[in-house]
């Protein structure tokens, strides 16, 4: 089946931001695609140009960049923090403790990435404490212990749902029996609405327009939900059961009626078509590639869409070590090329290039070409990381459990 691809300009954005900002998980469009141009496709002989490098504590949070400030989360021995750094120099502007230290067998510290909106920074800790802080001062405006309030429990491997701004709500997965997804008032932290049932997944929700309706699409532990952002009404539900509730990639808009969902653990990918009959919405599979022969099984990495193709990491086996870098044509679901055993990595698409961070701490540049795999640069820049590169104003930001590095990736003039 062939799908109509929309230009980026019509994709519904969850935030309005100045050019060059990266104010939330997966960037300005929450798609892992940057609008920036004029970026390098190679490194100097001496290696990447390091603008700055600063020590930081443990955590899996990525970075949000807004108005010249970089925000992320980390923890020390005792507490989890939100920290603001000057995006040009790396100098700490403030650091605020928001919860006790979080420990988990799959890795310690916070998982979710902060979101910046209208002068506030919204953070979500490993055990599910949602906090709004003043972006300028770091002062706490409000805080909500979401599992306690909703009578639920954190996901087994820690809460990883990065906050989403939707109308007057900040939206996260909670995973309570009668509150899989919750919208909290942006200014007060009071519950605006609850939606869905069952365990939380590890995915971050997206605000998309499908079948003419703006809606939150949330990939929870065993299903995908379409939710009205105004009142939390569940518009549709599509079951998607994976081992260990490991639905982690963010739902990705394909066109004005279609959304991609993908999961690893030998599961696969499905494109859902959202249709409307009267006041009722329905989700049906228009294409799927499931099981051990699937063309795409995204583990924690959200695929990037460009030129009618998905550039993605295909993870083979149950949390296995084999990961291929693949290019999949949306029109027919064909894998047009694959770099087998590329290795566990994450990617951001910008300026016709894939900027890839490997778990070994390498930064790799690959052409975002549909004709085949071409690697143009590779360098070790830090320790083991699961974060995708963040690109803002010609700089690339990446972190591990010890430090943040800022790399100048502007093309030489």
Characteristic terms for this protein:
four-stranded antiparallel beta sheet, Lipocalin, single chain
- How many β-strands, per DSSP? 32
Supply Rg.
Answer: 20 Å
Strand content: over 45%
Using the alpha-carbon principal axes, give the shape.
globular
Largest β sheet strand count, sense and barrel closure: 4 strands, antiparallel
The CATH topology name of the domain at 63-158 and 179-194 reads: Lipocalin
**Tally of helical runs:** 1
Uncertain runs with pLDDT below 50, 5 residues or more? 1-16
Per CATH, the architecture of the domain at 63-158 and 179-194 is: Beta Barrel
CATH class of the domain at 63-158 and 179-194: Mainly Beta
The overall pLDDT, averaged over residues, is 93
C-alpha termini separation: 44 Å
Helix content: under 10%
Helical/strand content category:
mainly beta
Oligomer state of the chains in this structure: single chain
Strand order of the largest sheet: 1-32-31-30
């Amino acid at each position: 089946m062939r799908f109509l691809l929309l230009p980026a300009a019509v994709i519904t954005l969850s935030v309005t931001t100045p050019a060059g900002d990266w104010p939330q998980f997966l960037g300005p469009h929450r798609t892992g695609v940057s609008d920036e141009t004029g970026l390098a496709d190679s490194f100097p002989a001496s290696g990447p140009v390091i603008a700055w490098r600063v020590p930081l504590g443990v955590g899996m949070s990525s970075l949000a960049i807004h108005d010249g400030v970089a925000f992320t989360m980390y923890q020390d021995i005792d507490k989890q923090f939100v920290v603001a750094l000057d995006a040009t120099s790396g100098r700490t502007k403030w650091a605020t403790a928001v919860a006790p230290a979080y420990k988990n067998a799959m890795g310690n510290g916070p998982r979710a990435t902060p979101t910046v909106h209208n002068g506030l920074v919204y953070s979500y800790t490993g055990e599910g404490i949602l906090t709004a802080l003043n972006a300028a001062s770091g002062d706490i405006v409000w805080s909500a212990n979401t599992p306690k309030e909703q009578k639920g429990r954190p996901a087994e491997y820690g809460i990883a749902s990065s906050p989403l701004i939707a109308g007057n709500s900040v939206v996260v997965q909670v995973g309570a029996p009668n509150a899989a997804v919750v919208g909290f008032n942006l200014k007060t932290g009071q519950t605006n609405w609850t939606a869905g049932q069952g365990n939380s997944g590890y995915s971050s929700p997206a605000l998309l327009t499908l079948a003419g309706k703006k809606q939150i699409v949330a990939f929870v532990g065993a299903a995908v939900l379409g939710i009205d952002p105004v009142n939390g009404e569940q518009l549709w539900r599509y079951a998607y059961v994976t081992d260990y509730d490991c639905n982690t990639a963010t739902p990705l808009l394909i066109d004005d009626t279609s959304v991609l969902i993908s999961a690893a653990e030998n599961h696969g990918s499905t494109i859902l078509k959202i249709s409307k009959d009267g006041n009722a919405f329905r989700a049906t599979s228009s294409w799927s590639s499931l099981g051990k022969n699937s063309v795409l099984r995204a583990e924690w990495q959200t695929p990037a869409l460009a030129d009618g193709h998905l550039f993605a990491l295909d993870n083979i086996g149950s949390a296995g070590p084999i990961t291929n870098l693949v290019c999949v044509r949306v029109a027919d679901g064909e894998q047009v090329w694959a770099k087998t055993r590329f290795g566990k990595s994450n990617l951001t698409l910008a300026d016709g290039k894939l900027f890839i961070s490997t778990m070994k701490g390498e930064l790799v540049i690959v052409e975002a070409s549909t004709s085949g795999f071409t690697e143009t640069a590779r360098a070790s820049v830090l320790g083991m990381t699961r974060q995708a590169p963040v690109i803002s104003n010609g700089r690339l930001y990446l972190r591990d459990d010890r430090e943040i590095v800022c790399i100048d990736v502007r093309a030489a003039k």
